[in-house]
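Notes from hallway chat w/ T.B., transcribed later so I don't forget. T.B. wanted the structure written out for a chain they're using in a teaching module, and asked if we could keep both sequence and structure tokens in one place. Agreed to drop them here.
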Amino acid sequence: MKADDTVLASRYSRALYQAAASAGMGEKVQADAASVLPLFVEHRGVFEHPLISASDKLQLLGDLLRGRVEPILLDWLNLLILKKRIRLLPLMVEQLARIADHESGTVRALVRTAGRLSAGFIARIQESLDRFSGKKAVLEIRESRELISGISVRMGDWVMDASARAYLAQLKLDFLKTKNN
């Protein structure tokens, strides 16, 4: 994706969210947009094909989504087809999620561990990240055996890596520095 694509995705997403939020449906529309993504991926070849007419694409979209999503979202998707921006939908849905998180005062955190975490430990991580960020942290927990042991947390641009892998990498750098001195 080009930088222009990111700017366009951000503008279209912001416009949709503002319109939906003014009608009290910001989070609902964001959730609906996320649910549309698998259908888009399934029919991507049709929606992006230059030889298929916009009216056929609009018909397919209506058949797939009418009654399943808010009308404001369907109108927005129709606009994306007419403006030939539908290829940016995955990026727009991602931007829409960020906007919704920001507006609702939440932040997403990816927590990677070498093994399973107990419910109590997850709750302590949740409390710590809530306090640290000043927002409600939504955790995505993944097991990553390559960490060897420990935990790694990414929240926005902030990263805390307390894994054995990171420790060993730092130890290697320290040894190399000592060797070169």
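Follow-up for T.B.: The first helix runs from residue 3 to 22. Might be a good example for the class.
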